Amino acid sequence: MPHIRLGLVTILLLVSQSSIAAPKADLWSIWQKNDRQGGEPIDHLNWQNFLDNHLQRGDDEITRLNYAGVSEGDKNLLDHYLAQLQRSPVSSLSRDQQRAYWINLYNAGTVWVILKYYPVASIRDIDISPGWFSDGPWGKKLFKIEGQMVSLDDIEHRILRPIWKDPRLHYALNCASLGCPNLQQQVFTVENNEALLEQAATSFINHKRGVDVVNGELDVSSIYRWFKEDFGGSDQAVINHLKHFANPDLAAKLRNIKEISGYQYDWSLNEVVKK
User: Fold this and answer.
1) Which of 143, 161, 191 is the last residue of a domain?
2) Are residues 88 and 157 in the same domain?
3) Is residue 200 part of a domain?
4) Using CA atoms, how far apart are residues 171 and 204, in angstroms rounded to an integer?
5) Are residues 182 and 116 in the same domain?
6) Whole-number Å distance between alpha carbons of 27 and 152
7) What pLDDT sits at residue 20?
8) Per-residue pLDDT at 44
9) pLDDT digits (tens, 9 = 90+) for 139-172
10) 65, 144: one domain
11) Which has the least CB within 10 A, 154, 166, 220, 241?
């Protein structure tokens, strides 16, 4: 009988893994509160200093973080920054302040999680989310903000996506993987929100890990499958979105394409590899 039980467990695992899908946008309504006048500006300098010290842009135009080279002092710097964000009165901030706040918290929080469990080959190896078939750290409640425990999934799927309804946010959030849009070298602020979102979208779409056309067939990042509804809900809507940010060469390749042929994603850790 043991081999029968093992077979059943294996089948359940395969079914679970094959049915993995990105969470739907599901508004957590308490985070809608904001103040048009805005509160005290949030100081993101510690996060910027951390990025300046440890984030590198490679010849392949992918940004990688030198996790192995982060000192205890810089880990403490990151701890202080995240503690500062958790003390911030988010509901008294303006919408633009809040957008920058949540993006920076997500990205800095992701780096913090990787450092806590490093070395790892992939963020998906950090299985601290609740549930038998947990995958990665995204469901773990990590931060206490205005009395509420908040996870990375909450930030992305219950706050940013449903409140702003902006597909460009997918290019702003970094999941510490090579297949993910770049971790930006600049922190998000009220002043650069729009420009940085446009830059992030353009950079990813014109990179082969985002969009690749070979012999008239279109392969794209799995982001466009997981979150197709955010990009219009159909292949054609996704393609129209890609055309908006495509450089002239890519735009020409996309001109007569009507459907997506395949999807790809690299979950390898976005770490600097010493030569």
Assistant:
1) 191
2) yes
3) no
4) 7
5) yes
6) 14
7) 52
8) 97
9) 999 999 999 999 999 999 999 999 999 999 999 9
10) yes
11) 166
Q: Is 85 a residue whose pLDDT tops 90?
A: yes
The stretch 68-81 carries a mean pLDDT of: 97
Residue range 181-227, pLDDT digits in tens: 999 999 999 999 999 999 999 999 999 999 999 999 999 999 999 99
9: confidence class by pLDDT, cuts 50, 70, 90: very low
Verify that 62 and 181 share a domain, yes or no: yes
CB 203 within 8 A of CB 211: no
Per the structure, the complete domain to which residue 256 belongs is given by 211-264
- Number of structural domains (the chain) is 2
User: Position 80: which residue type?
Assistant: H
Q: Are residues 185 and 223 in the same domain?
A: no
Give a yes or no: residue 2 inside a domain.
no
